[in-house]
């Protein structure tokens, strides 16, 4: 299967209200990764950021890490209209990661920098 077909299938699962929220969250995170990396599609930071946020809303807490990295400026570029780094938005994203160890480590790093 090629990336384009895979992305269409993932998009269909994401739109399927009968699919479980954990599955839809994982699908949103996979689409976000593809959009961020330009894997099988043109890189689209706006889509990546939105899909990570959607994944997080659907309960996929590990998406908070990638979203936080975006707001910290670790993606090396930003979506049109966004100003990065934005420590407040990064902190907010990491906090939404709950007990995710990677998010906790980034929160500690942000706190250490602000001292």
Automatic annotation (TrEMBL):
Per the record, the domain of life is Bacteria
Record's protein name: Sel1 repeat family protein
State the organism of origin. Paraburkholderia kirstenboschensis
Source taxonomy: Bacteria, Pseudomonadati, Pseudomonadota, Betaproteobacteria, Burkholderiales
